[in-house]
Amino acid sequence: MGKLTFAMENYLEAIYELSTDGTGARISDIAERLGVTKASANSAMSTLSEKGLIINEKYKEIFLTPTGREFAEFTSKKHQVIEQFFTQILKVDTAIADRDACAIEHVISNDSIHAMKEFIINKSKY
């Protein structure tokens, strides 16, 4: 499977965040979370289902497959590290840090994420 688009990564992350209590995510909640129409969300679910990243039965909750969960967790963790770096180290406002992290998480290298994480850990030791 090739690289996912930013939008597809955002959909996976939304499903992940909406289904952390063991239930699946509803299409209306996904659409609301991402500020898109239900039709757009449904279209994205078809694409993610074809790629084997979600289980999507008509009129039922949406669940991540193990591969989908892996992608979603990885994207979510990158988002958290970037946001933490911006708020704790750079003192950026939380709302701005969240918005920027959402944009950056898709293009930043794993090396940069690791460096940010290490910097946060080492900074907190002093």
What does this structure look like?
This protein starts with 5 loop residues before the first helix and ends with a helix. The protein has six helices and two strands, in the order αααββααα. α1 (6-18) packs across α2 (27-34), α1 (6-18) packs across α3 (38-50) and α4 (66-89) packs across α5 (94-104). The mean pLDDT is 93. The protein is elongated. The chain has helices spanning 6-18, 27-34, 38-50, 66-89, 94-104, 110-124; strands at 54-56, 62-64. The chain is mainly alpha-helical and 126 residues long. β1 and β2 form a beta hairpin. The protein has a two-stranded antiparallel ribbon with strand order 1-2.
Please sum up the structure shown.
With 126 residues, the protein is mainly alpha-helical. It has helices at 6-18, 27-34, 38-50, 66-89, 94-104, 110-124, and strands at 54-56, 62-64.
Order of helices and strands: HHHEEHHH
| Major pleated sheet | 2 strands, antiparallel
Q: Give the overall average pLDDT.
A: 93
The number of helical runs is 6
> How many strand units?
2
N-C termini distance? 43 Å
Q: What percentage of residues falls in helices of 4 or more residues?
A: 55-70%
Indicate the structural class: mainly alpha
Strand content: under 5%
Record the strand order, biggest sheet. 1-2
Overall spatial form: elongated
Extract low-pLDDT stretches: none
Cα gyration radius (Å): 16 Å
Q: Any chance you could write out the topology, listing elements then pairs?
A:
Layout (H helix, E strand, L loop, with lengths): L5 H13 L8 H8 L3 H13 L3 E3 L5 E3 L1 H24 L4 H11 L5 H15 L2
Antiparallel strand pairs: 1-2
Helix pairs in contact: 1-2, 1-3, 1-4, 2-3, 4-5, 4-6
